[in-house]
Amino acid sequence: MELSREHRSALEEILQTTDSDDERHRNAYLLLEYARGGETHEIASNVGLSESRTRFFRRLFERVGMEMFEDGFSPRKLRSDKAQTTASVQPLLTAQELETLRDLLEQDLPDDLRTRITIIVSYAEGRDTRSIAEDVGLSASRTRYWRKAFEREGMTMFSMHGVTSPASSIHPDQDRAPVSVLQDASGSDAEQAVPDMDAESDEPKRTSRAATAAKKKSPGLQISDSFTEAGRKVLRLHFNEMLEQGQSSDLGSDPEVVHRMRVATRRMRSAFEVFHDAFTDKTRKKYRKPLRNTGRALGAVRDLDVLMMHMHEYAVALPDEQAAAFQPLINEWEKERGRNFEALLAYLHSEEYNSFCEEFGDFIDTEGKGGTEEPFVIEGVPKRIGEIAPVLIMERYTDVLAFGAELETATLDRLHMLRIQFKKLRYTMEYFTDLLGPHARKTIRQVTDVQDYLGLLQDDQTAGEIVTAFIQELDLRQTTLPLGQRLNSAPLLTYLAERQSRKHSLLTSFGEIWAQFTSKDFRKRFLRVLLQA
Q: 423-461, pLDDT tens digit by residue?
């Protein structure tokens, strides 16, 4: 690839400009590397992109030149004429439906509902799949899935949340008729930041996972906080979230309430690990068991919600005669989920849980209680959280990197352990977002993306084991039925094969994901975030 003198000068100027955004800086670098004779695979590794994506930016530059670096430029504009000629004559949304969904986005919504509505509204506004996927934090295939689901189901896709017609007056907290667990199971185990709204009322309202994660609650840390009191603030934030979700009237009807409550308990357990030296052994041991028991009770419900959600999404697109094969398993899961939910309610009303809440509430509201002596550099020079946080984050980061030596031959169990380390890194960074710079949210999102990727792999593995066992038992279960009434297990085998295929694809592609995470570009961004603390 050859560059003119003007183009080379302009690209080098972008590299030297400190206020250039990451994407402009990256693209300038990769083009200059091509001009120097670099190979695609080397450049891709350095910038943290796939080889095909790296070649895409080279071809884009060859087509439009420096225009690709102008403010507001988007590759999708180049396809606008083609899109207009190939687009469906019938719009995705009527004007009334679009207005209804935009109004709904202005309300306080569950994360999963906001994500799905954002996808449909964005498609209706003419945006392409890739940009929508980036905004909502999903894969392109998952984003397309929700469009296809809407094309099949229309506005009824949102009916589980009370969205029944464009003319409805919609309030997320209004009373809803109970629905089956099969219909109510929604969302995924991957935690997503709550998108925000565009402040300009005259422009189409769009949400961005990265730009609006700031709406998430934070512990309110200050760089001058002591180590112990910073830990107490973090624990207080997630304890209050656990209480809020546990007292919600939607605990039995909205799977996301159980999910958020479970996440809160996980974050508290993780916080005790991060702030291990801030609290006494006696304090940590005292609260370890009740937090673990609470998490297990919630997990027994949540894990089934996720399994049923995935199976429902698959079965709903099948003809009735094929979908019928899934019903016995779904019925079984619904019964088990009901038993587990009753056990959860019993636990939440137990003396053990209520005593824990009372004692833990006193602990987080009493300054100095359960804390250790503050760390000092030398006597009279204490270390505050502003100095400690970068070290704690770096420890978690190196824990993740330690897995790199054996990834080529890693087992699924080892990848699951890697996912846990990614989650610990993510939680630790989120604890300290008040202290980190403006780029922290984007960096955390990238860590979360890898965690979510590995989560899909684990979901496929778990679902495969459960469905395989059910298929093996299906013939025995049907021995008392007349031959003409017995179910065909072929649709279940197809479902199993598709999940196995996706698991294999995720496994074989993980090397590319890892290369992006360990690229020089990401490492520089990560270190820049730490230096802002």
A: 999 999 999 999 998 888 889 989 999 999 999 999 899
- Which of the four CATH numbers 1.10.287.1080, 2.40.30.170, 1.40.20.10, 1.20.1640.10 does domain 389-533 have? 1.40.20.10
CATH architecture of 220-383: Alpha solenoid (1.40)
Tokens of 62: 């060859």
State how far the Cα of 73 lies from the Cα of 423, in Å rounded to an integer.
Answer: 35
Q: What are phi and psi of 116, to 5 degrees?
A: -70, -40
User: Mind listing the pLDDT tens digit for each residue in 148-191?
Assistant: 778 867 887 775 444 444 433 333 333 322 222 222 333 333 33
How far are the Cα atoms of 83, 120, 167, 271, 426 from residue 423, in angstroms, in the given order? 39, 29, 42, 12, 5
- Closest Cα partner for 294 from 237, 356, 214? 356
152/221 Cα distance (integer angstroms): 47
Cβ atoms 265, 259 nearer than 8 A: no
Kindly state the tokens that stand for 265.
């308990």
Q: Which two tokens stand for residue 480?
A: 């008392």
How many Cβ atoms are within 10 Å of 254's Cβ, its own excluded? 24
Distance between CA atoms of residues 422 and 414, nearest Å: 13
Give dist(CA 98, CA 81) in Å, integer: 23
